[in-house]
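Cast an eye over this sequence plus tokens and walk me through the fold:

***
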Amino acid sequence: MIETISDIRVLEGDYDDQTLFNIQCQLRIRNPQQDELMLISGGPINVRSKTSMIPMLGDTRVVFRQPKNESQATHQDPLEGIIDLSKNPPLTLEIQQRISGQWSIKNIESHHSLEQALSSMKKLETPAPCEPKTGLSSGGFVGILGYDLGQWTTGPRLSNPPPSGEILGVMWKTTGWIIHHRETNSISLVGITNISSTDIRRWACIDHSSVELTESAPPVSIETRTEHEIKTEEIIQAIKHGHVYQVNYGRRWEAPFENDPWSVFSRLNKANPAPYSSWMRSPSLKWSVVSASPEQLLKVRDGKISTSPIKGTSPRGEDSAEDAAKLESLIRSKKDLAEHMMLVDLERHDLSSVCEPGSVFWSNFRVESHPNVHHLVSTVEGLVAKESELSDAISSMFPGGSITGCPKTMSMSIIDHLEGSPRGAWTGSIGHINSTTGIADLNILIRTLDVRNKHSKNIGSVMAGGGIVHDSIPAVEVEEAEWKADAITRATWGAPAYKDDLSPPTAEMGGLTLPMPSSNDMIANFAPLPKTPKIVLVDNLDSFTFNIRDAMAALGSQVEVVEGRPASSAEDPQTWLKRILSEHAPDGIVIGPGPSRPEASERTMLIASNALTDNLNIGNRRVPVLGICLGHQALCLADGSRLEPSSEGPVHGSPSRIENSGTGLFENSDKTCTMMRYNSLTVVSDGRSMRPNAWESGTNLVMGVEHPSLPIHGVQFHPESAGSWGGSKIFYKFLETCTRPQC
């Protein structure tokens, strides 16, 4: 009897986590040269690890390639704040089709951004019924986006781009899904018409769990511990001089690889189960990727978008007592908490750029305990704006902030400068995208093996690193990178990442919810403004700009973001400012934060100097100005103050107690409030007219200034941060000022 196969079938049973591995092995036996991809959830079952899946890859795929470099990047020294913001050559997209088992190029496209490239794939999708639990359907895409595609998101022009023609990513059109529901131990078959339920049940029971590895040469680190420490110290110095807040530097291990990468994936899945593990193999592209990632880049479904960033890590303990002590130490670590809060603010910014204003919020601050490490993890989520496409959302988040640093543009320049070569798969993403249904789920490729064929040999590459901040200890950062890499190098080559045995102990997985800071910034506490002020917000390449926009929009203003440091412009700053005032007729201007010194932005310094000389007007109306962090520094510099590295050292992602005089923007604030800071430089002398009205408790560092007669204000701290208490009062007072006649 011929079985009638529907679009969606459910197979009840007792299917465990080995099931999809067994099925994938049988699929490989049927077609050894077939491209393969798996998305596997392991460890404890929770909201992030309920399903594993095998996408059935169809006869259409999109290959992302590095374009020809017609012109090289200009001189860069990002450690001194000098970066190349000129446009990258267009990204090359190959639309490939498989005919009689062979892939051929059907069409070639060029796109100026990753958003455009992903958007162009929508025309290749086909609608199909959705599986109710996951929302998955055939007709969308699944695949890998390598880190180096960040050149076409927030990334700058690289000094060390991939070679021309290098494969940067590949996405396959799906024809179906095999989904394992871990909570019910059942299987759903979606859109699969060429495999019977009987075959799936039979394959699921054929055990392929035993995988042997042949002995191979151990991996070699491409740099010594000393070189790693020197680069870490260079980053610390760049932070102290204000050019960047945090950089996620990575170190590479490489060696020839004789085994099937599948054997590594099988071993890793048992030794290091993770919620976002993934497997990818393309024999025709000679590329395989193995990942035991615990981190999600983003998930989009039903108009909601979320991300679960990781920042803050500790190895597990030798026994339960030591493990508990290490967990407590991580929770109390000021350094790790500062790194994490910085990342939360960065991800809020990335989401806010594509979400409805005021809808983005931070939740579920927690510890996730994996076999070898404890991690600090948060959830940041929001509602996708009606005008935002799925391609916008992915591009805004990619690559993840936890593996670049902050601000993204500057940290990615430093990564390129110090790492000296493309990252490849590591810190990119694997997952699925369906623009037709508005669904996407992508991981971040950490704990990853990247295998490519070079000169007729398979070369395996593993990278690992960590976030470098101003108080990092280079030797500790080196060890952290080594024990992060260790689980992957052992699973791949059977050898440690370093000759010393630094591999952390293994313990049971688990989790712990942590308390979150409350806030007194409820919007309901503020009276409606008498009118809707129009605000121009100057973006100085910062990764918190859209948090400022959201905070002010939530209070009833209309905010337009403009570039303070453009890649290139035919307009001189004076012409630009005249156009901005004419086109937007703003009721107020906010000079936003950013890396390096204010002089790096001619536009910012022009606004500051014009405001202070009473030349920032629309007709007879003065335009109020608020400077935040770098904007505050610009106002003080233009007023004749000096700006130097803080005598108390940098503060990034940590709260400070701020005392104020109760004047200017602090009129309605508590006399002492807690505000998050991201600055290495501080104002160290009085200017001609701006007068201090806020100071850090205990140090008397200037944290706020006001003009005695003009509507000009500056704050060194970040009122918009998730860690600031009372920041909305500062913004509300400025917006209130903007609604008054300023003559």
In short: The chain has two domains: 8-212+219-251+275-513, 523-738. The first strand starts at residue 8 and ends at 11. The radius of gyration is 26 Å. Residues 1-5 have pLDDT under 50 and may be disordered.
